[in-house]
Amino acid sequence: MEHGFIKGMDISSYPEMKDKGYKYYDYDGNEVELLDFAVSQGFNYGRLRIWNDPGSVLEAGGYCDLEHTKRMAQEIKKRGMGLLLDFHYSDFWADPGKQTKPKAWENLNPDELTEAVYAFTRDVLTGLDAAGAYPDMVQIGNEIRCGMLWPEGKPDNWPVLARLINAGIRAVRDTQKKRDTKVMIHLDQGGRYYYLEEWFDHCLANGVTDFDIIGLSYYAFWHGTYHDLKNSMEKLVKRYGRPLILAEIAHGYRMIKGGVFDEPQEKLAGFPASPEGQREALELIMGITANVSDEKGLGVFYWEPFCLAGCDDGSWGSCMGVVDQRGMPLEGLLAFHKNPHERNPAERVKLYAPETIRLTQDGAREYAARLPKSIKALRFDGNIERLPVSWNDGGKLKAGLNEIKGICDGQEVIVSIEVADETAGMNLAANSMFEDGFEQWEMERSDRVEVQIREKVMEEPPCDAYRYLYIKGNDKFRFGISQKIRVGRNGTYRFSLSYMGDNTTGVNVQMYIIAGGKKESCAIFPEELWHEHSVDMEVTQLQENGTDMEMEIGLIMDSPISHGAVKEIRVTRQQGDSE
Fold first, then answer.
1. pLDDT digits (tens, 9 = 90+) for 325-350
2. Separation between Cα atoms, residue 133 and residue 138, nearest integer Å
3. E-strand spans in 423-464?
4. 250, CA 20 to 30 Å: which among 95, 102, 334, 397?
5. What positions carry a catalytic annotation?
6. Do 563 and 473 meet the contact criterion of CB atoms below 8 Å apart?
7. Which letter does DSSP use for residue 516 in this model?
8. H helix or E strand, kind and range, residue 85
9. Rounded Cα distance, 444 and 511, in Å
10. How far apart are CA 245 and CA 182, in angstroms?
């Protein structure tokens, strides 16, 4: 079945939305049948997830079982759309942070588990065939970069993981009859090629070869920049020769504090959390996909564009759909009206703000020499070009953060210059730059975690160097580092550090400070550039009799396969606090 450029939607939650009484409307406020309306807006493919026994998991509500999937698949097929079926091989969610075996399979050995994958996949596909809704495309596992059916199917046990994947593929081939059904292998981290090459090299070397499409999740707030996505897709096509589909994309139409799309996510996504920003981001992602070399970019799937929530709870349904909480369509939906092949690939769609420049007070006197002469511009096809920029005179800089304005390609741009306050308080953290290895630091780590102290030399003047702690987990892992400090004065103490690292579903990074029976902590939303984070603790219990208090600072990572880095650790008592 030919559909041209795939503009797909994962609508697995639609039966649940209907049962909750949610309604959907057109632009004039008229109630619509959602699938008919979706087709009229340009969607030509539906994606459905299937869980093994969701009735055994209270939170699943019994949805995404075979019967719900049959009915939804029939509705999709009836409207002439293509169908992608997503096997999670779990009773509930499977993603990089969790690949939990179905309860019925918990005690199976690898041989029995392989047969269970084959039998379940075959039976589901046979049932869909009998219902007249056999899929056009099948996913063997969901975001399986970290493996599936843990622990047997982890990537450190590739022979077993390969057998499990091949069992699912074999079930497709045994049931597809004369249909040209495509098999997809789906990983997260669409913009981080170094993970993908390693995975697919192992995949092919272990005999997983009978698949047609590489599927990727790409969320700009988790999986790298748009240019990273472009490079990743081009390298995948060159190395493996298979077509690509972005099996999951999305962008928030609004921010919700503490929710799935808040200020950190908006910053990394590079477009505003607004209906217009959503449209721009989606059009760009489609443009990058449509302009992959050799026409290997087949299309995209928006993950749950019509999911709703009953309140502003920060969940996916409260801010990530292409309809608002009333069920009214948003501007983001207009992205699916368009054919990305008809837009100029060289069109500039985004200027990248320069990185923050950090200077001492002495260096601030000649800051103009450090201003970049050009900045990066992103094109619709995902390529980058550099454009000249002219800067205004910022006058004398003050200690702290300064902003200098300039003009590039007719648009205003801003560079931040941070000037060190040389009167800042003394750093109470010992060995804060790891000059003495891990002296003074306590460390905890699970198996298969690499920890190194590295040195980075800056290429631009004044050619500074710095040391940093590098952490890489090669399996789902936990890592922690902490230090105990004695403090003898009341006041506000600030624990700060700079962090850089990967992000994806399941990544949890926290920094904390403990003193006097209290704990303050903050979550770190990892970025691919260094970013400073801090947490404060108010100490008021110390007396004037000379006693002091033990304070603990620390960082905890709890994550699927990923990496992170830490530098510039500081603990200071803030100026102006009472003695």
1. 999 999 999 999 999 999 999 999 99
2. 12
3. 442-445, 449-457
4. 102
5. 143, 248
6. yes
7. T
8. strand 82-87
9. 14
10. 12
